[in-house]
Structure formats: structure tokens, C-alpha cells
Amino acid sequence: MKLTARFYVLLSLAALTASCSQAPKSEGPVYLDDSQPIEARVEDALSRMTLEEKVKIIHAQSKFSSAGVPRLGIPELWTTDGPHGIRPEVLWDEWEQAGWTNDSCVAFPALTCLAATWNEDMSVLYGKSIGEEARFREKDILLGPGVNIYRTPLNGRNFEYMGEDPYLASRMVVPYVQEVQKNGVAVCVKHYALNNQEAKRHEYDAILSDRALYEIYLPAFKAAVQDGGAWSIMGAYNFYKGQHACHNEYLLNDILKGEWGFDGVVISDWGGTHDTDQAITNGLDLEFGTWTDGLTMGATNGYDAYYLADPYLKKLREGSASEDILNDKVRRVLRLMFRTAMNNDKPSGSLCSPEHYDAARKIAGEGIVLLKNDNDVLPVDLASVKKIAVIGENAIKMMTVGGGSSSLKAQHECIPLEGIMAAVGDKAEVVYERGYVGDVSGNYNGVATGQDLSESRSEEQLIADAVAAAKNADVVLFFGGLNKASHQDCEDSDRYHLELPYAQDKVIEALAEANPNLAVVIISGNAVAMPWVDKVNAIVEGWYSGSQMGHAIADVLFGKVNPSGKLPFTFPVKLEDNGAHALNAYDPQDLTVEYKEDIYVGYRWADKQQIKPLFAFGHGLSYTEFTYGDAKVSKNSVKAGADVSVSVDVTNTGKVAGKEVVQLYIGDEQSRLERPVKELKGFSKIALEPGETKTVTFSIDPEKLMYFDDEKHEWVLEDGKFTAYVGSASDDIRTQVSFEVR
Ligand code: GLC
């Protein structure tokens, strides 16, 4: 049971006042006086700590906590997963459930869904809500968000991240960081860096150019640190330049702490620490999850055997390790403590509140992407349909359990069928058919969904029954996609292929044959192949959207919410249309992963190779239409370093109100080093009533025109012609204008 910071402080104050009878607060130790600047408190606390106490606080004491300094009234630090909600309590030294009954949570949408909103206000709402839940559960560090770039559609953890574009991820991660931390809870942005696949995640060495590192894989982390003010960062499992990312002189000392000035704590991923000397000198500050016996599971209570525990203490005592480096680690951990556990004016948080359920529904509603909608199959008009056939396992399967460390014990999860039934009420009949059998498990880490998904019918029978239901219905809603089972969207395993699993293609083709009034809803955190795309009139990406998934998807399908989501990553027609796969630069067996596609990730690759994607980065339809006027530039020629702006009028020419994400891409027509055709450098989500026009203006500061010259190791702005492309998707540019930089 964690004693609150206040309790410890009161305890130590009581001890102090007892000894110095009614001493006024200001004469107490500086570190206990939260009116003092944090740096003064850090130095004061550090000066009072013994060598043993210093070493004690830079490694774990339990599965998810690290020690404080009881003698000084400094409490321990508690961490919790994950990026989408607050993980249920586990036993002190185990992954297994502690069996609490007051640790259920609201499951917020997966971060792919948040990214798909392209709306920073949603990120504010998300960070505020999840931060309140973490605070209420008395957690000091939230182990999220994740911002690893989507390099391959097979990566098992893409659902936890924010897509393929560094600019989108950078914009969307900052409010989440800021809002969580307003609760006195630190974020722990992960997994820094280059954890872009799960295959061999503890072993592979990522090989790539500095150009790709700085332009594609680091920006979201840099934004989280420099703009978001992140208080902690989690090292990744993989190697980079031959050193584990959790203790890596390049990523941690040179870039994160050197170039970016990070003043927070580098926390290892659980089991990501492998060497005392490297952990000491290469930037690791707080070691968690080490399996000290070197096998898969930890020696019980082996915390003193951690790399930054007794082995480190021994070196310090021998004088073969510098106390200066130790003090830097301890300062960072103390700083984090004073920002969180010892911060006495933080809010008290809340758990499972109506506001949090509303937030989950609102974010999901803004993130759901309408991919295709021919013949206006959607929205379903409840006044005109009598029978709705809901088909597919993903209409009933709970998705908040499973998938790895982001798995949750949701207080409630509204599955799609429930949301549809609630929306339809008695206006129409709703029938359900399984259609296919996917993953019938419903238990992760001791949390059970309670669902019985067992099924005795054959594949053929299931399809026959689904087709029969579809034939007799006015509209058919198929829910398929992936799930959180191993080798689907799941930590520690990648997918084997781009295709939908469980023979869903057969079901979809049969349904399309049976009834053209078919909408296919893909529940996934990754792109999937759609060989039937021309046979299906309506397609929706519903994401893993958490506790309110069912209500959010029903809101969109029945038109209560006009969809405004845009894809945060490309849906390629086939795997080879993706750069990493086209260049054979992804092999789940390889221990060396060479990022041969370099900076050409996602739409950058599609543009370069002139490949038409199935659905492009930034794509998403609406139930209304938007027209764009001609882009206007503030100056046709600007001096290097001066701002330039591009404006465009956008009009809602349809019949219903809607939101449009106006996207700005920049193309550099002349550059010493080759650059992508265009790169996302701005977006703005605007709400428009029917007939309404708004002017969107993008300010293009010099940074948006630069690229990273890795021969000079600096960002460069070169003279020459640039083109601003403005549109509704990366493959739907509506207008463009060029300007000259002198
Ligand atoms: C896991 C994950 C990391 C998680 C940590 C604690 O292995 O890689 O994202 O926060 O361990 O569960």
C-alpha cells in the first residue's frame, strides 16, 4: 500500500518539529519546503543522502516502483502502464494481478485513433483524462505515450503509436504530455528509439542514416521533450550502433541530454538493461524490470542484483565509478520526485468518471475514418431501414484486454453490437451473425473479459448463416479486422502478412455478393489488405477505440457524428508497396535491420515510386463535401529565415455540418541532397456548417523548409523554389502555390 507523499512529509515534519519545537516551516530542510524552487530542493536533498541511498533510488524495488528515502521522508515512485489507460495493479514482484477490485479504468482509444483525429484539442482532452486517472490511482509515472514511427504494417505495436509521419506525431504528442503532467504525473515517452518492430525486439541492431534518424525517427521524441516538457523517457530494447538503446551514448548522452537539453529521467524498458558499465556511463538513470538471473524471469526480489544496484555500489566504494555521474542520475530522479510524488499542489484526479467516458467517445468519434462511401450506404438512415444485419467477430469481441503491456481492466467496454443496439433501439430489428471465428481467448495477465466466444459451427456454416442474414437485411454492417492476439496487433510479436486473418476475405466477398448495402468496419491498429475493395461500397476504419468503441462507431454509422478522421499511416495495396518491404529491409529473423528505405517512409515512398496506395496517408471522407479555393502565398520571394504564409478558403458545399483536416505539404524543388516530393508541414481541423467558408492560413517558418544534412550534422535551409501543396489528403492535393527563398 503506497503511503502518500503528504503522509511522509507530515511524518518527517512531525519528527522535525518535535525536535526543534515549533520551528517555523521556513527553517525546515529546503527539500521539504515545496515553496522552494525545485532545483534548490534537489540540491538540498542530494546533499543529505548517503551513497547507499543514492544507489537505492536509481533502480526498481518492485515490478513497477522504485525506492524513496524513508529517512528523509522522500516517498517511493510508482509507475504504471500504459498509453491508453491505467493498468490494473499487479503483485509486488510479479506480472500477475493483485486482484484489487477498485483498479478498473476507462480504456481510452488507442493512440493511432488519437493521431487519426488530427486534432490537438483531442490530445489535450486525452492527456487530461488519462492523467486524472493515473493521478487518482496515485501513480507518479505513466509509461506512455508511444511515438515510434510506423515503418512496416507488420509491427505488432503500431496500434500504440501515432503513425508514419514525424510532423503529425510531433504535433499530436505535445498536448498529451503537457496535460498528463499538469496532474503531477510524469509521462514516459517510449520507446526511445528505433523500436519500429517487435520481431527480435531485444536483439536487433537498427542501422540507418543520421538523415533518416533525425528527419523521421527522432522528431516526435524531440517535440515531446522540447515542446511538451516530458519528465521521463523510456529507452527501447533494441540496439543502435551496437549499444542497447537503454544505455546508449549516442541516443541518450549526445542527442537527448546533449543536443535537446533533456533534464528528466531516462527509464529502461523492463528488461532493457544489460550492462553495469554502460548503464553507468551511457545515460541510463532508472533501471526497471531487469531479469537479474539472466533468464526470462527475475530472481525473486533480485533488486539488489540490478546492474545499477550492488554492482554499481561496489564500483563506487572501490572508487572505480565516479560519484559525479551518480549524482547526475540522482538529481534527475529527485527532480522527477519533486515534480510528482513530492509535489503537494497537484490535483487529486478522478477515475471512471462520466467525463472520462465522454472523452473516450468524443476522441473515438473524431478518429474514426470513413475510407469509402459509394452509393451513400452510410450513414444508415434509421427511419428507412427495418432490418440491420451485424456480422463478424469484431462486433462482439472485447479489445481492451490483450495486446501486451497496454492491456487494461476496463470498468466497461461498449462493443460495437452493444453500441448499435443502443442507437437503434426499437427503430429497426438487429440480427447478429458471427461470420468467422478469430481469437476466442479472453484473458491477459490474469484479466478476463468474461466473454465466451466458443463456436461449434464450421467455417462454411458460419458464412452460410451470415449470408442468409445479409440477404434478408436492408443493410449489412460487417466488423472484422485484427485483434490483440499474438501476431496480430500485439506486443512482442509482429504480423506475418498484410492480409486479414481468419479467412475474413471470403466472408466479405460473400456478403458483398448477397447485399450491396454493405459497410465493412475494420477494427485494427494497422493497415490491412483489401482484395475486395472494389466490391464493397462502404469501408470504415474503426480502430481500437476503447471503452466507448460501440457508441462511437454507432454515432458515425448512423450519422450522429459526421466522420472527420484521417489516416495517420498509408494503407498499401500490397506489402511490397511499402518501402521497407520493397527493399527487403524487414526480415523478422534478422538481428540487423537496415532501414534501406531511409527517409522514404509511408507516403514519402509512395510519392517517390509513384505508387497508388489503397488508401493514402491523410485520407478520410466525410458525409459532406469540401471545396478548396486557390492557395495564396504572402510573398512570392522571401529572404532565407523570413516567414511566409499560405492561405486557402475552404467551403462546406454539402448538406450537413462537418469537419475538414486541411493539410499542408511542402516540396523543395532544388536541394543539394535528394528530398521527398512533399512532406507534411501543417494541418488544421476546421468545423464548417453547410455553405460556410473559412480561410485557413499556414505560417511557414524557416524550420519547415529545412532538411537534416547529415554530412554537416545540421539542419539546413537552402535557397531555391519551394511548393506548398494544400489538400484533403496526401493523394488529394486541391491547390498549390510556389515561392522562392533567396
Ligand atoms: C514492456 C513494454 C513497455 C512497458 C513495460 C512495462 O515490455 O515494452 O512499453 O511499459 O514493459 O510493462
C-alpha-based Rg, rounded: 26 Å
* pLDDT < 50 stretches: 1-6, 14-24
* Overall geometric form: globular
Tell me the total number of β-strands.
Answer: 29
Assembly annotation: single chain
Q: Give the distance, in angstroms, between the N- and C-terminal Cα atoms.
A: 64 Å
The CATH C-level name of one domain is Alpha Beta
**Largest sheet, order of strands side by side?**
1-2-3-4-6-9
Strand portion, in percent?
15-25%
And the CATH topology of one domain? Rossmann fold
Characterize the structure shown.
The protein has 742 residues and is α/β, with parallel strands linked by helices. Among the domains are: 39-63 and 204-338, TIM Barrel; 359-567, Glycoside hydrolase family 3 C-terminal domain (Rossmann fold), CATH 3.40.50; 626-741, Sandwich (Immunoglobulin-like), CATH 2.60.40. The chain has 19 helices and 29 strands. The strands form seven sheets. Strands 1-2-3-4-6-9 form a six-stranded mixed β-sheet. α4 packs across α13 and α14 packs across α17. The chain is globular and about 80 Å long. Mean pLDDT is 95; it is low at 1-6 and 14-24. Residues 81-82, 143, 190, 269-270, 405 line the site of alpha-D-glucopyranose.
